């Protein structure tokens, strides 16, 4: 399992966002359960009242209306919550992903990475999508055409053989970067500090 330490402030920021989404999901599920129980009780009362009054359309209409409103409300909540979860997943993949990388495979054509997030997905990058590398001997940083997407690999986590193979391929296929990839990117500066 390959993982790369992340800037503590960014990791804290992500964890807060993840916790907030989990909390929202929990309260949404609890709201659905509570509303369902309440609606079932109300529906039973209305249906009993309707039975004693010859099943007038008014009672049945009220019950149907309540269930429709309840269903639409929860569908809307679920849609916006799932969209927020997907956006958080994108942030993980394109800004914070190395901390959540679970496995890496690479060859002369591409680097494939499985990222654990919401939901789990696989990311494949060809070598053409990398713009350069910086190698400290212990940490290999790969920059991509996306300013927000950087990959880092460490000798300690990969092992000597895998690390040396990847750095050799990087040196053959990519130009060496001598300066920071993006001076405005705090995470990139964090990864660079103390490694070169």
Characterize the largest beta sheet: strand count, sense, and whether it forms a barrel: 3 strands, antiparallel
Structural class: alpha+beta
The geometry reads as rod-shaped
The helix tally amounts to 5
Quote the average pLDDT: 62
Termini, distance in Å? 25 Å
- How many discrete structural domains? 2
Beta-strand portion reads: 15-25%
Q: H/E order of the elements? A: HHEEEEEEHHH
Protein name: YcxB-like protein domain-containing protein
Organism: Flavisolibacter tropicus
Keywords: Membrane, Transmembrane, Transmembrane helix
Transmembrane segments: 58-81
What descriptors fit this protein?
196 residues, alpha+beta, 2 domains, 3-stranded antiparallel sheet, 5 helices, 56% helix, rod-shaped, disordered C terminus, transmembrane helix, transmembrane
